[in-house]
């Protein structure tokens, strides 16, 4: 999906505002395993995923706890670190080679001052992220593991081939052994 069409899913952005937004984008490539942001770092850029898969997570003594996956055409960041310019509590890393475009926090704030339409676009995109987080929270606490697995497969089936299954299991709150059984036995 073209980036402009993706933005229009959230807000009817004019071509002029889209051009204003995209003329400031810079490109960056990451390799599989590269860290974008580590705990304690401030996320200074907002990324627009062109290709690849990224993961945000935190570590405890025993486990990696996956918060989210990002992929094209979505945005990629640690939202609270970027929005409030405070140190991250999480890792943001690349699970595959990734190509992204980005804007700095300061450049985005300048764009907000220049265009209320761009500001409205990002507000609506932020609202969609919040709604998605709340939906996921409800699913984790109300659905059985097979139902969570099926919903994931409906939303992001391509990740089953791109992401190590232990990370998907963590994201879904499922033991890796049970995830393996679901993967091998449940058709969606």
Q: What do these coordinates show?
A:
By secondary structure, the chain is α+β, with helices and mostly antiparallel strands. It has a domain at 3-115: Jelly Rolls. It contains 9 helices and 8 strands. It has helices at residues 3-8, 15-22, 79-84, 105-114, 116-142, 145-155, 159-162, 165-172, 176-185, and strands spanning 26-30, 35-37, 45-51, 53-59, 64-71, 75-76, 91-94, 98-104. The strands form 2 sheets. A 4-stranded antiparallel sheet has the order 1-8-3-6. Helix 4 (105-114) packs across helix 5 (116-142).
What would you say about this model in short?
The protein has 188 residues and is of the alpha+beta class. It has helices at residues 3-8, 15-22, 79-84, 105-114, 116-142, 145-155, 159-162, 165-172, 176-185, and strands at residues 26-30, 35-37, 45-51, 53-59, 64-71, 75-76, 91-94, 98-104. It comes from Marivirga aurantiaca.
Q: How would the blueprint of this fold be written?
A:
Layout: H1 3-8, H2 15-22, E1 26-30, E2 35-37, E3 45-51, E4 53-59, E5 64-71, E6 75-76, H3 79-84, E7 91-94, E8 98-104, H4 105-114, H5 116-142, H6 145-155, H7 159-162, H8 165-172, H9 176-185
Antiparallel strand pairs: 1-8, 2-7, 3-6, 3-8, 4-5, 4-7
């Amino acid at each position: 999906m073209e980036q402009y069409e993706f933005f229009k899913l959230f807000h009817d952005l004019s071509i002029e505002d889209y051009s204003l937004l995209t003329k400031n984008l810079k490109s960056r490539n990451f390799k599989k395993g590269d860290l974008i942001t580590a705990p304690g770092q401030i996320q200074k850029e907002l990324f627009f995923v062109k290709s690849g898969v990224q993961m945000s997570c935190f570590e405890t003594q025993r486990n990696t706890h996956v918060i989210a996956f990002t992929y094209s055409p979505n945005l990629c960041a640690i939202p609270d670190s970027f929005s409030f310019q405070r140190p991250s509590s999480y890792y943001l890393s690349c699970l595959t080679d990734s190509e992204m475009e980005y804007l700095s926090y300061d450049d985005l704030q300048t764009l907000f001052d220049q265009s209320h339409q761009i500001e409205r676009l990002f507000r609506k995109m932020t609202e969609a992220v919040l709604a998605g987080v709340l939906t996921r929270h409800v699913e984790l606490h109300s659905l059985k593991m097979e139902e969570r697995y099926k919903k994931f497969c409906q939303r992001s089936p391509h990740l089953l081939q791109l992401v190590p299954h232990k990370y998907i299991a963590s994201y879904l709150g499922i033991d890796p052994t049970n995830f393996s059984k679901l993967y091998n036995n449940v058709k969606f």
